[in-house]
Design a protein that fits this description.
Blueprint lengths: L2 H21 L4 E17 L2 E19 L2 E7 L4 H17 L31 H16 L5 E20 L4 E19 L2 E11 L8 H14 L9 E7 L1 H14 L2 H5 L19 E4 L22 E5 L2 E2 L6 H6 L14 E4 L2 E2 L1 H8 L2 E8 L9 E12 L2 E14 H6 L1 E5 L8 E2 L3 E9 L3
Parallel strand pairs: 7-13, 11-17, 12-16
Antiparallel strand pairs: 1-2, 1-4, 2-3, 4-5, 5-6, 7-18, 8-9, 8-11, 9-10, 13-14, 14-15, 15-18, 16-18
Helix pairs in contact: 3-4
């Protein structure tokens, strides 16, 4: 899509919607627009399974009449549709309760100037070429070992997006981005049964994606390594979370520090400001203006400028994760995080992964988690896991059908090391995280 032309047209449309909102009696109004276009192909056993083009556009309109709020959405940008959608939002507002925390963020919190974060790099790949890449990826994976007997397929996708936000304070902001990816899921089988594993690559620029052969081979190697799993011993052992799982572990903390959970009193981190929750050598920081970052953004869902900050500094809670509304509910100030965090890093001394495993001596390396056994109110944590058993400081054998359990606040306080293997593919960019003690339930 011609992003600059789209941006100009949509900015003018947002201005018209805001004028219409005022004409219909809104005291304040805001409009969010998203435009997405992309291509996705998937193959299985060398044959095309799915080819999909998508092109979507939507408008979300929110009006405030006093402290009453009403929202409506449409995909139709005609004058009649805009008038009807604004009217629908106003009608909803007449039936909602007054809430003193409703309303736009203060005008001075909007970005003062546009920042080019270099997020838009379209990939003009044709379906035939995308199919060929997916086939190469899958073939490379299946060729790793004769025990790789089947495939859940390989996928190549490319997506372009344009996001706009405007409000009746006069702010209209826009940024475009691209996201390209490739993945492969393989199935291995031996006398002990079947196992499945995967690998993937994602980037803003197509030339930063891993080679399809490398993705397929990595998926194949991971799958073969999981064959003939055993169960783990039952007891209290060190647990090492691989980066992909460590990201989720930190994600639970971000959720507990989020304003929505806090003002609802539904968080195990209530009233935790300045409390020690991680070792004093660990900090959690957000850097939303990283050029080319997968999570980079110049403003949040409230039109508030994003900025670098620490949510945890030297192990202590330094800031909650707040939108404009949740901040008002807590009598605080927004942190520019309506919609979540942007490029969060876990900062602290890093140790080579091999050394971490030697340090463990005996314990569990978790590479997959299953189930939803996390209680956000109490912090109680119990999940199915798979990975590898560590014995005498070395990977001994794969394990499956294991349960790990603890309490998140205690788990965070028991982090004793971070790996040097940061996974940059997620918005929470985590390394391996070693917890010195958790309950592991395996063999009786």
């Amino acid at each position: 899509m011609d992003v600059k032309d789209q941006e100009r047209k949509l900015s003018a449309l947002v201005e018209n919607i805001l004028v219409e909102a005022k004409r219909q009696g809104a005291d304040q109004a805001e409009v969010s627009v998203s435009v997405d276009a992309g291509l996705s192909v998937s193959v299985r056993k060398g044959e095309l399974e799915n080819l999909e083009f998508n092109q979507d556009r939507g408008f979300g309109i929110t009006l405030y009449v006093g402290h009453r709020k009403g929202s409506a959405s449409t995909t139709d940008s005609s004058d009649d549709a805009v008038r009807a959608t604004v009217a629908a939002a106003k009608n909803i507002a007449t039936f909602t309760e007054e809430d003193a925390c409703n309303g736009l963020a203060e005008a001075h919190l909007a970005p003062k100037k546009a920042i080019d974060l270099d997020l838009y790099h379209p990939w003009a790949i044709q379906p035939e070429a995308a199919i060929e890449l997916a086939v190469q990826c899958e073939e490379a994976g299946l060729a790793v070992d004769a025990r790789l007997s089947n495939s859940d397929g390989a996928q190549v996708n490319t997506q372009e997006s344009l996001q706009l936000y405007g409000n009746s304070h006069g702010f209209i902001g826009a940024y475009s981005g691209t996201r390209h990816g490739m993945s492969c899921v393989l199935i291995g089988e031996d006398a002990q049964g079947m196992q499945r594993d995967y690998w993937y690559t994602v980037a803003r620029r197509a030339d930063q994606l891993l080679d399809p052969v490398a993705v397929g081979e990595r998926a194949g190697q991971r799958t073969v390594a999981r064959l003939s799993p055993r169960t783990a011993p039952t007891g209290t052992f060190p647990v090492l979370f691989a980066p992909s799982q460590a990201s989720g572990l930190i994600g639970h903390l971000v959720g507990a520090l989020s304003g929505g959970a806090l003002y609802r009193r539904a968080s195990f981190m209530l009233d935790s400001m300045s409390q020690q929750i991680l070792p004093d050598w660990i900090s959690l920081t957000e850097q939303p203006h990283i050029v080319g970052g997968l999570g980079s953004a110049t403003f949040d869902g409230d039109g508030v400028a994003t900025s670098s900050k620490s949510f945890v500094q030297d192990g202590r809670v330094a800031s909650y994760v707040l939108s404009n509304y949740s901040a008002r509910r807590l009598s605080l100030h927004t942190t520019g995080n309506a919609g979540g965090v942007c490029n969060m890093d876990i900062q602290g001394q890093q140790t080579p992964l091999g050394e971490l495993i030697r340090t463990m001596r005996r314990g569990l390396l978790v590479t997959e988690l299953m189930g939803q056994g996390v209680n956000g109110v109490t912090g109680d944590y119990s999940r199915g896991a798979a990975g590898f058993w560590i014995e005498n400081g070395e990977i001994a054998y794969p394990v499956a059908e294991v349960t790990i359990a603890g309490n998140l606040r205690e788990m965070y306080s028991r982090v004793i090391a971070l790996g040097d293997d940061v996974d940059m593919r997620n918005n929470i960019r985590a390394p391996s995280i070693l917890i010195d003690k958790m309950i592991v339930a395996g063999a009786s």
